[in-house]
Design a protein that fits this description.
Layout: H1 2-25, H2 28-36, H3 40-53, H4 57-73, H5 77-85, H6 95-107, H7 111-124, H8 129-141, H9 145-158, H10 162-174, H11 178-191, H12 196-208, H13 212-225, H14 230-242, H15 246-258, H16 264-276, H17 280-293, H18 298-310, E1 315-317, E2 320-322, H19 325-338, H20 343-359, H21 363-376, H22 382-393, H23 397-410, H24 416-435
Antiparallel strand pairs: 1-2
Helix pairs in contact: 2-3, 3-4, 4-5, 5-6, 6-7, 7-8, 8-9, 9-10, 10-11, 11-12, 12-13, 12-14, 13-14, 14-15, 14-16, 15-16, 16-17, 16-18, 17-18, 18-19, 18-20, 19-20, 20-21, 21-22, 22-23, 22-24, 23-24
């Protein structure tokens, strides 16, 4: 009886023992369940366990592929690459393993290694568009723009893919082939008219060509279908500003600010636009916001200073009487420290400082800045009047006379400055006559 009971107990426990051994022998079902639950760390542990007992090369390959994919999901690209490299056979390229390895190299920044693999894969499988697309993308990333354009054109001859057309356009632009670049970007936009990046790329080319009307037309057409794209709205505002349609630009930038766009570009161009319209308080507020974002842009410092210098009125702000003069002088000083040799910027800086010191009736301080401004921009003949006037107030009559006469020789009769200079010449000559 005891023997029979013992036998029955053994038979009942046997399936459990067999099942336990089966689980120990094959952890793959549990690994797949872990992957299905996105528990990749657990899946990697189980796949490692499976690899310890794997004997067949094909089984080791399949397990290693699964492990590498889990490692990639956990952003362990180098470990994934090592796993894949361990199952690659010299002289025989496994397409699936090589493709996964190339992808690991891209993710870890080893672009040259990735490019080499995709090039080999492309040669072995010339009809595989995916390998060609990856190769073209990598050629652009390693700055081989000629190679990227050639590879991209070959792809487009087989299949018109908008992103590849744009990639060719970007490569041609990098090589200075602006018109050809524009052609490819336009082809891309025709196939995918809702892509804002393509609109931005085309717009930047058109702005560079000073074709402001086409830029306005392109962006307005896009915004009719996609009205909430801030990047394209910004370009529309810039196009209006550069076109010198300042009222239209003001409405665009005002709406952007109302919608909460306080990005550097929007605030900087809002300031330039407001400055062009002599809306000095708006310009100052916009420049101040841009300055808080980035105080390293010398052009911002100059234009911010100009907005303060031109706004000579005293006013209350938050209950406090403010005077812009000192702030403007500091900004111009900061800009002068930052500026590299740039005649346009240096002209604005010194002209602004000259005006500020002149408004303070400090003609001795204003004079060297007016002289410097004229040196950087001798086309601004009005500076000759300012320089002459400073000399006259400093009682250097002969030098003042020389500058006034130089101005009268190039100015237009009947203008306000011309008439003022003539009156000054008469005054100085009578003063010099009396001194004799």
């Amino acid at each position: 009886m005891k023997t029979t009971a013992k036998l029955l107990l053994t038979m009942m426990l046997l399936p459990l023992a067999v099942n336990s051994k089966a689980q120990e022998a094959s952890p793959l079902p549990e690994a797949r369940e872990a992957m299905a639950r996105y528990e990749y760390s657990r899946a990697i542990e189980l796949l490692d366990k499976a690899l310890e007992s794997a004997k067949e090369a094909s089984e080791i390959r399949d397990l290693s592929l699964q492990k590498a994919r889990c490692l990639k999901r956990m952003l362990h690209y180098d470990a994934a690459a090592e796993t894949l490299a361990s199952v690659m056979t010299p002289g025989a390229l496994d397409v699936e393993v090589a493709g996964e390895l190339a992808d690991c190299h891209v993710s870890s920044g080893r672009l040259a290694d990735a490019l080499g693999l995709y090039s080999i894969l492309g040669m072995q499988h010339p009809d595989n568009l995916y390998f060609s697309i990856q190769k073209a993308s990598l050629l652009f990333k390693v700055n081989d723009f000629q190679g990227c354009a050639e590879e991209g054109r070959a792809i487009c001859a087989r299949d018109s893919i908008p992103s590849v057309l744009s990639l060719v356009g970007a490569s041609l632009l990098k090589m200075g082939q602006v018109d050809s670049s524009l052609t490819y970007y336009r082809k891309s936009l025709r196939l995918n008219p809702s892509n804002p990046n393509t609109v931005v790329s085309i717009s930047n080319i058109l702005l560079g060509k000073k074709d402001y009307d086409s830029t306005v037309s392109l962006t307005k057409d896009f915004l009719e279908r996609n009205p909430d794209n801030l990047g394209v709205v910004q370009i529309l505002g810039v196009a209006y500003y550069l076109k010198d349609d300042q009222d239209a630009a003001y409405e665009v930038f005002k709406q952007l600010r109302k919608d909460g766009d306080d990005s550097y570009g929007t605030m900087y161009y809002s300031g330039l636009n407001a400055l062009a319209l002599n809306r000095f308080e708006v310009a100052q507020d916009c420049f101040e916001s841009a300055w808080e974002t980035d105080s390293s842009d010398v052009r911002l410092a100059v234009n911010y200073g100009v907005s303060l210098a031109r706004d000579i009125q005293l006013r209350r702000k938050n209950g406090v009487m403010i005077n812009n003069t000192d702030r403007a002088i500091r900004l111009f000083g900061k800009a002068e420290e930052m500026a590299e040799p740039d005649h346009e910027l240096m002209y604005k800086i010194h002209n602004g400082l000259g005006q500020l010191y002149f408004m303070r009736q400090d003609t001795k301080a204003a004079l060297p800045h007016y002289l410097a401004a004229y040196e950087h921009n001798p086309k601004d003949n009005a500076l000759l009047v300012s320089i002459g006037y400073c000399h006259r107030l400093n009682k250097d009559y002969k030098t003042a006379l020389r500058y006034y006469e130089k101005y009268l020789s190039v100015s237009k009769e009947g203008t306000k400055n011309h008439n003022f200079a003539k009156e000054e010449v008469n005054f100085i000559k009578s003063e010099l006559h009396m001194l004799e």
